[in-house]
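testing teh design pipeline on a random one, pls ignore if ur not involved
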């Protein structure tokens, strides 16, 4: 039955939106520094933009420090430049062996700013979920118009699609609330 395929596609889109939200949350800084802050940084490795974690080991050595040990010492200046260009709010400290990033403890304002960012990310996820609902509803309307399903089946399908959407939005709200709590906790 084509309706099951529509529900599957909607749920798949919803899951993608929620996974994207969780990934985005990793870029937010909380009280404890995370190596995911540098995940998006690319280093020029023999002419190829390469993810930082593929040219060296990236470790959070304590709550406020990230240490980057390149596989090749000749990459230190390239890594340093990439970090400065990424503008992550700290200057790299190069001691000739490793690069250390010292993140100052977060202020209340920074925590609130991060929490605001989490809310915005949640809104983006909800938009993606609502777009999935719209797409599913349009497919149901098309099936009804082509007389492949009855009016009652279409009504039932719209209800199921809305139920899926409501559950997903509630899940996003819960994730955002948890993230905000984590970010604002001192």
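output:
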């Amino acid at each position: 039955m084509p309706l099951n395929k529509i529900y599957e596609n909607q749920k798949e889109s919803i899951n993608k939106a929620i996974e994207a939200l969780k990934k985005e949350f990793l870029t937010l800084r909380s009280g404890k520094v995370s190596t995911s802050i540098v995940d998006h940084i690319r280093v020029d490795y023999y002419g190829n933009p390469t993810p930082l974690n593929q040219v060296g080991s990236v470790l959070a050595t304590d709550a406020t420090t990230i240490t980057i040990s390149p596989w090749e010492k000749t990459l230190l200046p390239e890594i340093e430049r990439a970090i400065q260009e990424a503008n992550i709010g700290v200057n790299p400290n190069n001691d000739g062996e490793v690069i250390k990033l010292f993140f100052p403890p977060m202020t209340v304002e920074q925590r609130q700013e991060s929490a605001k960012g989490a809310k915005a990310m949640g809104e983006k996820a909800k938009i993606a979920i609502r777009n999935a609902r719209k797409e599913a509803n349009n497919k149901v309307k098309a099936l009804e118009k082509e007389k492949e399903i009855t009016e009652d089946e279409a009504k039932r399908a719209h209800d199921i699609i809305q139920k899926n959407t409501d559950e997903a939005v509630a899940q996003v709200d819960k994730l955002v609330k948890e993230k905000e709590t984590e970010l604002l906790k001192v």
